[in-house]
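#lab-general

N.A. 3:47 PM
ok so I finally got the sequence cleaned up, no stray characters, all 224 residues accounted for. can someone with queue access submit it? mine expired

B.Y. 3:52 PM
send it over

N.A. 3:53 PM
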Amino acid sequence: MSVEIDFAAQEAVRRTMVDCQVRPSDVTDPALVDAMLWAPREAFAPKSKRAQAYMGEHLEIAPGRFELDPRTFAKLADLAEPGPEDLALVVGAGMGYAAAVLSRLVAAVIALEEDPALVASMRATLEALEVPNVIVVEGPLAEGCAAHAPYNLVFVNGGSATSAPDGLVSQLADGGRLTQVRMRDAVGRGEICRKSGGALGARSAFDAAAPILPGFEAVREFEF
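B.Y. 4:20 PM
back already:
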């Protein structure tokens, strides 16, 4: 699979996205802003949806799977405080947009995705962009990727109706952070969890809503 990318074609649209959706949402980290100005969001969308890539809504990339809207993604990434020494795990990497942006902010990214078609598309696009520090891994999302753990940062790229799965928590380094959109029915909050001494503390930070990722659905209680 080959992907041709015209970096300049949507440059003005990317700037408008940042100026109208990201900066007004109190996202001021210059490195994150620069990474979002660089990443061609339309390249990480199905061809039929590329005209919608910069709109302020979640973008469907496959049946039941979505790319976070720019505002939610930016605020969640800002909350995560990515640093140049970090090893990051992106859970539900989809077609690779979150991994591409974070690749400009951290030492290396493990991009975990369970949909084989999305995995193939992500690999092709990242190769076309010549992104050297992202490793694409196919596997169940909630299980994480123990082979490359521990992680300084786990970025859950979508909604979660549960607390962080034990598999992901066990793969966090001490002092590591996990960010997700914690959903309760139709409403949610951007959440950051920090691991310290084996325990995980959570803080709710901003209003948000996101489609729930596979494996992150609410656990049904047994009814007699």
